[in-house]
Amino acid sequence: MNKFKKINIFALGWNGLFIIVPLVLMTILSFSTTRGFSLQEIEFSLSNFSKLTESFYFIAFKNSLKYSFITTFICLLIGYPTAFILSKSPIKNKNLLLILIILPSVSNLLLRVLAWEKSFAANSILNYLGISLNLLGTDLAIIIGMVSIYLPFMILPIYSSLEKVENSVLDAAKDLGATKLFTFKKVILPLTVPGIISGIVLTLLPSATTFVIPLRLGNGKVLLIGNIIEQSFKKTFNFNMGSLISLILMILILSFMVLIFKYDREGETL
Fold first, then answer.
1. CATH code where residue 178 lies
2. How many domains does the chain have?
3. Has residue 24 been placed in a domain?
4. How many CA atoms lie less than 13 Å away from 100 in the CB half-sphere?
5. pLDDT at 130
6. H-run or E-run covering 44
7. Does residue 198 lie within any of the structural domains?
8. Residue 36 confidence (pLDDT) above 80
9. Stretch 102-116: mean pLDDT, rounded?
10. Taking 50 as the threshold, does the pLDDT of residue 202 lie above it?
11. Residue 32 forms part of a structural domain
């Protein structure tokens, strides 16, 4: 029993050090004005909230929502058929194919973004040949980069849901005379809704807060909320606004996740 108590105390201390303490500091900085990160001359104020009405932040929020929803929608269109084909594949070692799909996610994110950047920059060769494909710095370049990076996060949960669909259920639908299309619409699709929701959450949230992809593939022309947070902490040293925006995003993300899981408790209310 003492061993488990020590483990719990260690876990609480670890969470307090790396989760609670930063969260408290972010909250303090959000409701105050300071000189950088120094708390010596701290003044509590709500002036940071008034700055959120500036068009600068509105455009960033709008761009973040636009790119994240487009990316999630495309990932769903590609991810579901991919997961479905993979789950129904007669290949015995399907896990190997799944690992090959997930493997790029293990590599460094920046390296993958730079690889896309170099690929788009290589279009200068095509321009020399008279073929104009200037993708770098365009919306298409950002969306291609986001989809390629976050697609595995959509495929994996959907594939997991499809694997849980028992063959006996499909056989029963077939014995009752249901066509393949009807079986998919009335049996398979409803049973895989939890996986779809999980895939949407895992894709939507990181794509809404990313800053490396639009910075490199967008050639600095497109501003997302992640870029503002990064600039607030690394360039302008406005830790108050950076903390406030991060806190707002955290609240929105947690609210979204609570709403999702409220209607997705192991598929009970779906």
1. 1.10.3720.10
2. 1
3. no
4. 8
5. 58
6. strand 38-44
7. yes
8. no
9. 83
10. yes
11. no
